[in-house]
Write a structure and sequence with these properties.
Elements (H helix, E strand, L loop, with lengths): L9 H5 L8 H14 L6 E5 L5 H9 L4 E6 L2 H7 L7 E5 L4
Parallel strand pairs: 1-2, 2-3
């Protein structure tokens, strides 16, 4: 039996901020790509959203987009829920 560090809390214990410090750079790269292709999304989904900061920043940039984040870790989703809004939602579970 494999222990899943993402669901049992071990990953959060070793990464208390769930790498939020990298989120601004990641979101900017996505925004640049979308702008380069002149595409304004109506919806944005992120699988493995972690603490939800990348999706939060994208939702702030694309205010008309319906955004949904998914993560296997209930601990990550608990953190992400502080970023939730009417057009930004998070769900925990294995989407496979």
């Amino acid at each position: 039996m494999t222990v899943n560090i993402y669901t049992n809390g071990e990953y959060l214990k070793n990464n208390e901020n769930w790498h939020v410090e990298d989120s601004a750079w990641k979101a900017l790269q996505i925004i640049k790509m979308l702008q380069r292709h002149a595409w304004t999304p109506g919806s944005i989904g992120e699988v493995g959203c972690g603490a939800g900061e990348v999706l939060f920043q994208l939702s702030n940039n694309y205010r008309d987009a319906d955004c949904e984040g998914y993560d296997l870790s209930p601990q990550a989703i608990e953190i992400a829920m502080s970023r939730a809004s009417a057009h930004l939602r998070f769900q925990s579970g294995d989407i496979a």
